[in-house]
Write a structure and sequence with these properties.
The protein is of the alpha+beta class. The chain has two domains: about 35 residues; about 80 residues. The protein is built from three helices and four strands, in the order αααββββ. The chain has a four-stranded antiparallel beta sheet.
């Protein structure tokens, strides 16, 4: 009986730890979004997607998220729905603080469409 209670307690602790880790990540991403440079970086990413894909409707409606900002380089991801997003599920980009996109990587999911 005690081992069952102990395993339930362990499972509860794991859920709480996972929830805290998710909350920490959310706060980190939120801090990146609050950076005064993010709107310019997001705009540079949107222009790059429109230029490479040739579809301004997809680039305008996509969701852009900052993932990291280190040493003057932003990691940004653009995501969008399939019919408009012909390149895949998301596009990872490296963008310098100046707005120059120097890496562009469409990422395809492994699930069939």
């Amino acid at each position: 009986m005690k081992s069952r209670n102990l395993s339930r307690f362990g499972a509860l602790v794991l859920l709480l730890v996972a929830g805290c880790a998710g909350n920490k990540e959310f706060k980190r991403i939120d801090a990146l979004r609050s950076d005064p440079a993010w709107p310019m970086i997001r705009a540079a990413a949107e222009v790059e997607v429109a230029h490479r894909d040739g579809n301004t409707q997809w680039s305008h409606s996509a969701y852009y998220a900052p993932k990291q900002h280190t040493n003057g380089v932003w990691v940004a991801v653009a995501s969008g729905a399939y019919p408009l997003n012909s390149l895949g599920d998301s596009i990872g980009m490296l963008v310098r603080d100046s707005g120059e996109v120097f890496s562009y990587s469409p990422r395809m999911s492994s699930h069939p469409k």
